[in-house]
Amino acid sequence: MSDLLLILVTGLGLGALYFVAASGLSLIYGLMGVLNFAHGAFMTAGAYAAWLTMGALPTGWPVAGRLVVGVLVAVAVGGLVGLVVEVVLIRPLYRRHIQQVLVTVGLSLAGVAAAQGVWGADPRPVDKPAWMSSTTDVLGARLPNDRLIYLLVALALFGGLLALLHLTRLGLVIRAGVENRTMVEALGIDVHRTFTLVFAIGGGAAGLAGVLYSQYAGTVSPAQGGSLLIFAFIVVVIGGMGSLTGTAVAAVVVGLVQQLANYYAATGVGDLSVVLLLALVLLLRPTSLKGATA
After folding, report:
1. How far apart are CA 202 and CA 195, in angstroms?
2. Can you say how many angstroms the Cα of residue 106 is from the centroid of all Cα atoms in its chain?
3. Model confidence over 183-226: pLDDT tens digits?
4. What's the burial of 152, exposed, middle or buried (CB within 10 Å: 0-12/13-18/19+)?
5. What angle do CA 267, 230, 261 make, to 5 degrees?
6. Which of 139, 149, 246, 292 is deepest in the core (most CB within 10 A)?
7. How are beta strands 219-220 and 124-125 bridged, if at all?
8. pLDDT for 148-167, tens place per residue?
């Protein structure tokens, strides 16, 4: 019983990490129709921003305090990178999807090369708060505390994004602009500015995911963003392109399948199981788990 509880909690924690990584990707595609392959570069930028910030702060500060500041900086950096990319590269290419893919893939490769050129290709260790490195005893199972943090962050992000889209004027403008951009512009609303803000929000979520993944791995490296991006894309495709709720459900399923396969089969089988799950969903239900935006 304790082993099963441990697997379920770690699987949910991993799924929460995947959701944070995939949420910005799903948001940008669902509301703007942009398939952003540079999302991994945004996550890498956030991870390195947090790592550099934590290293620059006084060592007398507690690790948890430096991590909180690092997270804030990572979100800001991710949002800024997303804003600049949308204005400079994506805005001239709306409705030109092939060019968007080529540009974002090129940006992703350039981001990895730039990080390797500045900090090298070797992973760099990151500081982790002692509490996140320890466990909590629940019903005889030693549950990792960091997975609980990932769950709380993912739930807060999911609730915040849903509230933004359905309970605010900005969310109304975003959804209206997706349905009929010409009509919204006729009302005097700057849709381009609104979409830039959406891209910045997606970039901020990616920066947050980069920090969480560096804490999960214990290191930061140029290739981390690309590795996490693969699972983020799988989650988004299974959950339905552009569906935030579907993305959340798919992230939980993917995390649980991966952990259960790794435990009951063999280490490494989890990744294969996720790919097989993707193929199965596409074969049996091509529209994925949920097709509506949000």
Report:
1. 11
2. 20
3. 666 767 777 788 888 889 999 999 999 999 999 988 999 988 88
4. exposed
5. 25
6. 246
7. antiparallel
8. 899 999 999 999 998 988 88
